[in-house]
Amino acid sequence: xxxxxxxxxxxxxxxxxxxxxxxxxxxxxxxxxxxxxxxxxxxxxxxxxxxxxxxxxxxxxxxxxxxxxxxxxxxxxxxxxxxxxxxxxxxxxxxxxxxxxxxxxxxxxxxxxxxxxxxxxxxxxxxxxxxxxxxxxxxxxxxxxxxxxxxxxxxxxxxxxxxxxxxxxxxxxxxxxxxxxxxxxxxxxxxxxxxxxxxxxxxxxxxxxxxxxxxxxxxxxxxxxxxxxxxxxxxxxxxxxxxxxxxxxxxxxxxxxxxxxxxxxxxxxxxxxxxxxxxxxxxxxxxxxxxxxxxxxxxxxxxxxxxxxxxxxxxxxxxxxxxxxxxxxxxxxxxxxxxxxxxxxxxxxxxxxxxxxxxxxxxxxxxxxxxxxxxxxxx
Length: 379
What we know:
Largest sheet: 8 strands, mixed
CATH superfamily: Metal-dependent hydrolases
Number of helices: 13
Mean pLDDT: 92
Oligomer: single chain
Distance between the termini: 24 Å
Radius of gyration: 21 Å
Strand content: 15-25%
CATH topology: TIM Barrel
Number of strands: 16
CATH class: Alpha Beta
Order of helices and strands: EEEEEEHHEHEHEHHEHEHEHHEHHHEEE
Shape: globular
Number of domains: 1
């Protein structure tokens, strides 16, 4: 039996325009988009209708699973709590980040992330989840055991994005030792002697492992059709390396030079939405707004605050003359969807999935009023 729903009198945010009109949904797909006032269907009273947000990089699940150092929460309960906050932030497709590569100094044990992925997939089959959950494997290429962790996912079709990371000191995110000291010495309470050994070990591992592990993982991704992301690129050499690895997504470049080069090479440049909301990077690197102003910002991710993904595009549209609301919304919908080859969503257009969000916003923080995934209301 055909099921139809009509949303009327909405400010519909298309990829290149905002129109006042109605959207017809039929059997979970967008069947028609039309302009003009209507007395049929659910009256949006001038609220925005935008595509469901597509989140490529969020560590938010980790906070629910490990709410305090050394504490592990029930996986299913953590996933459900994460999903609830994700979907009420307007996110209908989320790539849950799982860490690959760990050692005795931190991270998760071997098999722990595989267990989490199994729990996500079980929750999906049991109808517990409202957003669609896919997997983003964050591979610490300097770690001795990253390939072992990565191999646990060789047959998992939920893996659609893999990022290649190296958090060794003196490069990429940690170009200065000051930031590295804060993150790895002060936060862990290490003595100077212990920290010196820690740094020496990280540098040795990076020199030994990063290039072969990076190349091996990229080769597997190419064969499986998985999108590859670089992480914290700082130099033109880093960008050239990313090009050689077939990277399509440049996550959190740490210099304007690297961001420009990545964008010029056809990669989608991703920065954190919290960076836009706060106006600065939490790690002291370049501000996302700076990249937006020079038109090399393509994608936003909520990173560690889900609602920031809805909030940040409105800030960009308000404050940067060259960025319209459709262009800003595309950074969290159409562009991330295209980057990972999800061509059935991310836009309000006939034939696409009816992943939609009703947003009320006069000023300040937008309010998510309703969320639909494939035409079914989920929030």
